[in-house]
Automatic annotation (TrEMBL):
Domain HTH asnC-type: 7-68
GO molecular function: sequence-specific DNA binding
InterPro entries associated with the record: AsnC-type_HTH_dom (IPR000485), Dimeric_a/b-barrel (IPR011008), Tscrpt_reg_AsnC-like (IPR019888), Tscrpt_reg_AsnC/Lrp_C (IPR019887), WH-like_DNA-bd_sf (IPR036388), WH_DNA-bd_sf (IPR036390)
Keyword NAD: no
Protein name per Swiss-Prot or TrEMBL: Transcriptional regulator, AsnC family
Pfam families reported for this sequence: AsnC_trans_reg, HTH_24
Biological process according to GO: response to amino acid
Protein's UniProt keywords contain Transcription regulation: yes
Domain of life of the native organism: Bacteria
Keyword set, alphabetical order: DNA-binding, Transcription, Transcription regulation
Amino acid sequence: MSHNLNIDKLDLQIISEMMSNAEISYADLGKKLFVSGGTIHVRMKKLQELGIVKGTRLHVDLKMIGYDVIAFIGIFLEKSSLYDTVAKELRKMPEIVRLNYTTGSYSMFAEIICKDITNLRRVLHDELQKIKGIERTETFISLEESFTRTINVVE
């Protein structure tokens, strides 16, 4: 645990509860953790100021609103020193939802969400090919997402 950030067990419990249900009210969360809603508010503000908690997100079933294709792209760079430049270009593509700098075969690994295969083809063939520094890519289409979850931060 990072003691230099001054995080205690209550902070971790708050983080854990909020990760599983970000819609819970501070009052209800306080009742659950045996502290006041005001304490939860103060702790959340501290966690946000420290940059540990970065806003809340709405979990949306993207398939239900027409985003049918999830794919992963392994990206080979001409030189690993081009990572920052290429990452900056990839950030401009709204279909890319996650990008990691990785060890192993690929220099970068991206997750991409598209409406359909035509949309995916356009991104791969038209947009990715234009980016200087990308040697080649390898695409993996997700047939099904079996599960997605957060980790348990409370021991």
